[in-house]
Design goal:
The structure is a single chain. The chain is α+β, with helices and mostly antiparallel strands and 153 residues long. 37% of the residues lie in helices and 34% in strands. The strands form two sheets. It has a four-stranded antiparallel beta sheet with strand order 1-2-3-4, with helices on one face. Helix 2 packs antiparallel against helix 4. 32% of the residues are buried.
Length: 153
């Protein structure tokens, strides 16, 4: 994965400072997703950060756009990503690094899977664009639906 990251100067290893900034500046849909899962932003993000084997921050210039990571599990790995409102400034074409990063992660983790809040339409579009498939599996929490997505190498 280092080749994909080396080609993208806007990606750097995530720090606790990035997590705090992200917690204070989450996109509303991401804040709601965390809320529906029962997490306060800082606690939920710190948990994801600490469980991640890989975690990177995406920047547009000096502005934090997103943080993403992958938590290893039994037989699969759990990718996650949360963003700031600055995500709306980033054009899809500039995110070609994401496809390379996903491909690199798939080499190490042949099965990537997680759930997304059904109301987080931006993330659903992003997940589909990256080539994940929705399984039809879902669960409910706090009266909200979460949809499973998966990628197999």
């Amino acid at each position: 994965m280092s080749d994909a990251i080396d080609q993208c100067k806007q990606l750097i290893a995530t720090t606790a400072v990035d997590i705090q900034y992200l917690a204070d500046n989450l996109r509303e849909a991401d804040r709601l997703e965390m809320h529906h899962l029962g997490y306060e932003p800082e606690a939920g993000l710190m948990q994801s950060f600490s469980l991640s084997e890989v975690c990177y921050s995406g920047y547009l210039g000096d502005e934090l756009v997103c943080v993403f990571g992958v938590c290893p599990g039994e037989g699969l790995a759990v990718p996650w990503m949360m963003g700031t409102p600055a995500m709306s400034k980033v054009k899809r074409e500039t995110l070609t690094w994401a496809v390379e990063v996903k491909a690199a992660l798939s080499e190490k983790y042949p099965v990537l899977s997680n759930y997304v809040w059904a109301g987080n339409t931006t993330h659903i579009r992003w997940i589909k664009w990256l080539g994940f498939a929705f399984t039809g599996e879902q669960f409910e929490r706090s009266g909200e639906t979460f949809l499973q997505f998966i990628s197999r190498k």
